[in-house]
From TrEMBL:
Organism encoding this protein: Glossina brevipalpis
InterPro entries (alphabetical): JINGUBANG-like, WD40/YVTN_repeat-like_dom_sf, WD40_repeat_dom_sf, WD40_rpt
The protein's name: Uncharacterized protein
Keywords assigned by UniProt, alphabetized: WD repeat
Transmembrane residue ranges: none
WD repeats: 9-39
Length: 292
């Protein structure tokens, strides 16, 4: 049976908004501007005053460098052992989304500008026009979504900042890549449908032209805020206070693994190790759940 296995020893002042996971470290960001660092069992290791306002996004690169963005306009970073906050950039536009592919950082802002960085040096900017609320990147493809469309763009090699739109799909944020990695890319993309209450799984390959593997209409009673996945499972959570899970992703209809009512609005989900899922909630608490 699915269950909450651990609950954080302390909490954010206000909503816990985002989570990232890297090598037995759990990072959470809240409306209080703090980044809290926990161990696997959600014992608080450190609390850092990272921003002066609401934290929008967190991401970690392969070497463990943690990046954060906030409505204060800053993107900042911390290196292990996470005792010093440094500034990467200050923007007049809100940077809602961050994503690390290896050691390459991608940032996405409210005007649709996606920028990639290597070793904290700006490489290229891609103007995707629509606000970027959720973002992923993999082997030259960028996945972005706002409120109505999921867009897959292929970057043109070189220093032009040009791209080719591979597909536009009906959906909304958030999105995630999941499933086994085939030819250097995850097999699937998952995101809510345009109602925000259903889920869509799409094949992330050109030969199949990003066809829909399956759809689950109204699988949540209210809007989905959080989504994450691993090789075998997809997890979702939202305003209905519930976290749900599905497996058998390759089937025409996935198998439901059950649901957990966490008693608070689910703002964000993140996969950890050993089939653990970490949950950021509106009560400021971080929870760890397991469905298998």
């Amino acid at each position: 049976m699915p269950s909450i296995e651990k609950v954080s020893t302390e909490k954010h002042e206000g909503d816990a908004m985002v989570i990232a996971y890297h090598k037995d470290h759990v990072f959470s960001g809240g409306v209080d501007g703090k980044i809290k660092i926990w161990d696997n069992d959600l014992n608080l290791m450190k609390s850092v005053d990272a921003h002066d306002a609401y934290i929008y996004a967190l991401t970690v690169n392969h070497s463990g460098k943690l990046y954060s963005s906030s409505c204060d306009g800053f993107v900042k970073f911390m290196k292990p052992p996470y005792d010093k906050v440094e500034e990467l950039l200050r923007s007049d536009d809100a940077i809602d989304a961050l994503y690390c592919e290896g050691d390459i950082l991608y940032t996405g802002d409210e005007k649709g500008l996606v920028t990639n960085w290597e070793n904290d040096k700006l490489l290229l900017k891609y103007n995707l026009v629509e606000e970027v609320k959720s973002l992923a990147a993999e082997k030259g493809w960028i996945y972005t979504v706002r409120d109505w469309d999921v867009v897959v763009s292929e970057l043109v090699p070189g220093k032009s900042g040009k791209y080719v739109t591979r597909t536009v799909l009906d959906g909304k944020s958030p999105l995630c890549l999941l499933g086994p990695i085939l030819t250097d890319r995850h097999k699937y993309i998952a995101y809510p449908d345009r109602t925000g209450k259903g889920l869509v799984l799409v094949r992330n390959v050109l030969p199949e032209r990003f066809t829909i593997a399956w759809q689950l209409a109204d699988c949540h009673e209210m809007i989905i805020n959080g989504i994450c996945g691993d090789e075998k499972c997809l997890y979702s959570g939202g305003y209905d206070n519930k976290v749900k899970a599905w497996t058998d992703l390759d089937e025409k209809k996935p198998k439901a693994l059950g649901e957990i009512d966490v008693g608070s609005c689910v703002n964000f989900l993140c996969c950890g190790n050993n089939n653990n899922v970490y949950i950021a909630c509106s009560d400021g608490i971080i929870r760890r759940a397991k469905f298998t």
